[in-house]
Amino acid sequence: MTLFAGGFAIVLNFALEQLVRSEGASKESMYGIFISTALSLIFDPLFILVLNWHVAGAALAMVLANVGSAIYYVYFLETKSEHLRGFLKHFKISVRDQLEVYKIGVSELLQFSFLIVSTLLLNNYSIHYGENVVAGFGVALRIVQVPEFLSMGLFLGLIPLFAFNFASNNMARLKSTIKHAFAYIGGIAIVFVSLVFLFRGTILHFFSNDPSVLSMGTYILVAMLISALFNGFTGLFMSIFQATGQGVPTNIMAITQGVLFIPMIIVLHSVFGLHGVIWSMTITEVITSLMGVILFVIFSKKLKSTAGAGKGVVEVASV
Question: What is d(CA 81, CA 74) in angstroms, rounded to the nearest whole number?
Answer without folding.
Answer: 10
